[in-house]
Design brief:
Helix content is 37%, strand content 22%. It has twelve helices and 17 strands. α5 (213-225) links the parallel β12 (199-204) and β13 (230-235). The longest helix is centred in the first third of the chain and has 23 residues, at 74-96. The chain starts with a strand and ends with a helix.
Length: 372
């Protein structure tokens, strides 16, 4: 089987190995176990591989380079319109040369892929919508277009659309799905954490406006002001780092808030195993891996109620749902810190739920999608 991936994810090449953002590649490597050849249509723009990157594991990859493009400014709009015929032709040829078409959505390439795939109604297709599928959420116009096309069976013949969460009025081609990080063999005992000493919070992700890392800092700052012995470690890099550094310095939080940058997966795993909470006050998510990973190791999630997060946390029985009202959220977390038995109950439920979704289970479900 020749498997075609249409994606906006930026790639790089080092020693004849193609690499990209680690969580994405780790998932795609599970898909690629089932195929003979891979055609990747994506931008090849990364010049240096770092700790957050991972290489594809496949012996037969044909990479078809397309330019990175966007519609964020007037200049970029004109450039993208100029490139459009070439982009559509590249996608068409890759789909024509493949047995199975796989779209990564939402994104600019995902939108073009949604349009071109209509020309191949008989070919087997899957689309992974890795964003928020909630029809009530406020999303960019291109995301709404992709959701509209993907949710319409007439425009997606012979396609399974994989989305996070279960949503009312979903069409028959839409399939609730999940993602995973760990294997069955990784289910080692979870370390018991108490509140007798320092209470550790984590933030893992891009330091961007959408992820709201500053809100995580303000939560811990407010908890300290209430007398709790807390600390926060932020893993990741991004445009908000300078603002975070200035805020930490201005409010003299250097002794409880630490910016450690991008780290390897093993380091993150150890942090999950040792910390009490993982904080994700994000404005938008799909299936946030850091939440599921934290739960796997007994690191209780404190997350905003977006996309399928309320379902993941069972409406707060497996974690703390943020309202993004600082006063309310601090009170809810503080109340939990004063009731260790309730915390341990939530942790137990979180571990039991998360450990259902292993890579073994994920691979078995992928096989069902690829094998007729």
């Amino acid at each position: 089987m020749t498997f075609c991936i249409i994606t906006h994810v930026l790639h790089g090449c080092e020693n004849d190995k193609y690499f990209a953002y680690s969580p994405y590649v780790k998932e795609m490597n599970v898909w690629l176990k089932q195929v003979d050849k891979v055609i990747i249509v994506a931008p090849l723009k990364l010049t240096e591989r770092n700790k957050i990157h991972l290489a594809y594991q496949h012996a037969n990859i044909e990479f078809r380079v397309i330019p990175d493009f966007n519609f964020t400014s007037l200049k970029s709009i004109f450039r993208s319109l100029f490139l459009l015929p070439m982009l559509l032709w590249a996608i068409y040829k890759a789909m024509r040369d493949s047995d199975h078409i796989h779209l990564r959505c939402p994104g600019n390439m995902g939108l073009l892929g949604c349009l071109v795939q209509m020309v191949f109604p008989r070919k087997a297709k899957t689309a992974k919508y890795a964003g928020n599928w909630d029809p009530k959420s406020n999303q960019p116009l291109s995301y709404r277009w992709q959701r509209s096309i993907l949710s319409h069976p007439f425009f997606t013949r012979n396609m399974k659309v994989l989305v996070y969460g279960e949503w009312t009025d979903s069409t028959q081609n839409v399939k609730p799905f999940f993602t995973a990080t760990y294997f069955e063999r990784d289910k080692t005992p979870v370390n018991l954490r108490t509140f007798e000493t320092l209470i550790s919070f984590l933030f893992v992700g891009t330091l961007s406006v959408g992820k709201q890392p500053l809100y995580a800092v303000q939560l811990v700052q407010s908890l300290k002001a209430l007398g709790h012995k807390v600390q926060l470690t932020l893993y990741g890099e991004g445009s908000e780092r300078n603002q975070l550094e200035q805020y930490i310095s201005k409010h003299q939080l250097n002794d409880i808030v630490f910016l450690v940058g991008n780290q390897e997966q093993e380091t993150i795993k150890q942090a999950f195993q040792q910390s009490h909470f993982v904080v994700l006050p994000s404005k938008s998510e799909g299936w946030p891996k850091v939440i599921a990973e934290g739960m796997f190791w007994g690191c209780l999630p404190v997350a905003s109620a977006v996309s399928c997060v309320p379902s993941m946390l069972d409406e707060g029985k497996r974690g703390v749902l943020l309202t993004l009202n600082l006063t309310k959220d601090v009170k809810n977390i503080s109340d939990l810190l004063n009731h260790s038995e309730e915390y341990q109950d939530k942790v137990s439920k979180a571990v039991n739920w998360s450990r259902q979704y292993t890579l073994d289970f994920f691979e078995a479900e992928i096989q069902k999608l690829l094998i007729p």
